[in-house]
Amino acid sequence: MLRFILRRIFLEAIPTLLVLVTVTFFLIRLAPGGPFSSEMNVPPEVKAAIEAKYRMDQSLSMQYLSYLADLAQGDLGPSFKYKDFTVNELVNKAVPVSFKLGIVAFIIALIFGVGAGVAAALKQNSWIDYSVMGVAMVGVVLPNFVLAPMLALVFAVWLKVLPAGGWEGGQFTFMILPVAVLCKHYISVIARITRGSMIEVLGSPFIRTARAKGLPMHYILRRHALKPALLPVVSYLGPAFVGIITGSVVVETFFGIPGIGQLFINGALNRDYSMVLGLTILIGTLMITFNAIVDILYGFIDPRIRIK
Amino acid sequence: MNSALPTLPPLFGLDDDANISIAGRSLWADARRRFLRNRAAVISLVVLAIIVTVCLLGSTLSPYAYDDPDFAAMHNAPDTQTQHWFGTDNLGRDLFVRTLLGGRISLMVGALGALVAVLIGTLYGATAGFVGGKTDSVMMRFLEILASFPIMFLVILLMTLFGRDLWLIFVAIGAVSWLDMARIVRGQTLSLKRKEFVEAAHVAGVSTTRIIVRHIVPNVLGLVAVYATLLVPSMILFESFLSYLGLGVQEPTTSWGALLEQGAKSIEVAIWELIFPAGFLVTTLFCFNFIGDGLRDALDPKDR
């Protein structure tokens, strides 16, 4: 097991991270037009000072190495756009917001997704099954950026019961709509996966044995069926986490929530290279770490994975 | 049920309308029969065909041009009198024409993106699977590294750096979406390589190229078709996502995503600006999903 974990971290996660940092760094430096092309007419000494601040006066390889060195200490450098801020300061303000939004959506998606999936599997081909699967189909197909304005129209403009946007430190009423939009897709997918694997597990011999012994259904579910049925859900958690981060871009932009998604888009629209670079690396690191954790977790749950 | 007796399934390749002569049914004929029995898939196919046709006809159906602002008619509601079937947008441009133009762009991005992904993915996967050994493991390693990239963010990064070019969108979207395709094709190729009929062909002295062309490719093709159909809607979604964020196509050209962004902004004054593009987009996505499901059921009998 230890070998499996070490291999997963040192042979997979860390090299991938290095490749990611390298690729994004050089992509940005190769881009046409510097980040300061809007400030053409500055005196040469000012230009030199600016370039020194952003290390543009050094050779490309030196820039790369010093960026790596900074990165190792968690320093993402100064923002190209917001001159008085470092990327870290901006990111530090945004991360808790996105984190709160994401974690709530994640938990809700898990609870409701698994619940709906199990219910559909237990009553296969009943109206419960059909309505769960129907709603799940809609949930997968309907894009976030269609659902968000529609919900805002109904609940904020027509009914006037919920705010149409803003964050206000994450008050409950401000979170309802963004969380609903964000978790819709994952509830649907998790419900589908759970239903499929639960039906398979419920049809297997050891469940039949348990029923033949006369065990009550809720006991069979808890003790026997749930764990194997949830294995595919665990392996979906990695992609789901990534998707929630990505989805938060749309949600944060639409509802005006000051999280990393909005920061990223503003950075992209303003050509704030260091911000986009820093956030790409941050998000990439999160994704790679989370996938590694899920893999290792999976290795614990399912011994067949580690023997490879 | 007191209607006619259940018809017996045809035996030994006898079709309903076949004579006594025994005709073999090809994989594709079989698949077509199964597909046509799937009502949702067939209806979706018809609806999709209508949407595509209307989008292609585009501006010929309306007296207005897609980039012709009319400041006397901003945010006008749908009206058959003025022939603004879907109303007008914030600049008084005809929404009907713009929705169809957006559809053309969205469908084109979807189809071309999926094509790029299918080509790269199939070639990559088939090569890795068939060559095997060290090559295979190196190629798969590379794939895994790419797969753990935050791809959406890399594409946005590319858009930031190199400007918003429609072709860049095609290539970027296609180039990052072939990973699953490659993995699926590789898996299929690996298992096919060891099948008895391939071994039999080997023993009978059939050349490797001929084995790939006659035995491997037709067997992978079904899977590729299914996956490609499901890729198109995700490509369309991806493009809409980019356009919605203002990183996709540029004015006055438009796509469903770009129209939705505008519609979301003016939802309080002009709900039709959201409803029509959203309706087209969601209907198209549903159609592709149903067709993909139908194809999977038709081409992959294991799953039934």
Describe this structure in words.
The complex is a heterodimer of chains A (308) and B (304). Chain A has 308 residues and is mainly α. In chain A, 78% of the residues lie in helices and 0% in strands. The model of chain A has no long low-confidence stretch (mean pLDDT 82). Chain B has 304 residues and is mainly α. Chain B contains eleven helices and no strands. Chain B has helices at 27-37, 39-57, 95-131, 133-147, 151-162, 166-176, 178-193, 196-203, 208-244, 256-265, 272-299. The radius of gyration of chain B is 24 Å and the shape is flat. Chains A and B meet through helix 1, helix 5, helix 6, helix 9 and helix 10 of A and helix 5, helix 9, helix 10 and helix 11 of B.
Keywords:
heterodimer, A: 308 residues, mainly alpha, 0% strand, B: 304 residues, flat, disordered N terminus
